Amino acid sequence: YASATRPPAVYRGNPFQVEVAVAFGGDIDAEGAVTLMRFANRVPLFYQQSACAITRTLIDTDWRNYRLSQSSGALPTGPLVVLVHLASVWVPFTSESKEAIAHYPEIIKEIRLGLQECGRRVGEHIGRQRRAAEAARKKSYIEQYISHIADALQEITGDGSRRRKQVENNLQSI
Length: 174
Prior knowledge:
The chain is an alpha+beta fold. It has helices at 53-60, 105-143, 146-157, 161-173; strands at residues 2-5, 9-11, 14-24, 35-40, 43-44, 80-88. The chain is rod-shaped, with a radius of gyration of 26 Å.
C-alpha cells in the first residue's frame, strides 16, 4: 500500500488537491489490467472512464519504470488497484453529467506526480520481493552442495566424522 497527497494547487483560479493511493498484491488478479477507482469530491466516477483525465494520465505514465508490465496505450497489468481523488471547490467535469474530469494541464501534472510517487514505492516493494526470492534461490542452490564440501574438507584435512559434522553445521549456519 502506498499513498500520496499532493499539496494544493490552482487551475484557472480554482484551488484543488489530488490524492492518490495504490494497493499492490494480496488477492488482486495478477494477470488482469490495473483496477482504477476515480473520485471527485468523494463521489465515485463510474462512467466515461476513457474520457477522464485521470485515466489518460494513468495510461500515459510509464509503469515499466516501476517494474509493472504495460502495453503502449493501455492500462498497466498486474496485481494493482489505483485510487485517485480530486478535491476542489469547482471540479472541471467534461460535461453536465459529471462523469469524467476535464483535461487541464495543471490537473494532469498533479495526478501524474502523485502516480509517480506511489509508483516509486510500489517499484521499491517489487524490487525487495525479487531480491528476497533471488537470495532464497541462491541459498537453496548452495545448500545442495554443503555435504559434498564437508566431505571434501574431511578428505583434505584428514579429520574424523565428528569434525565433518561440525564443519557441515557451520556451513549451514553461514
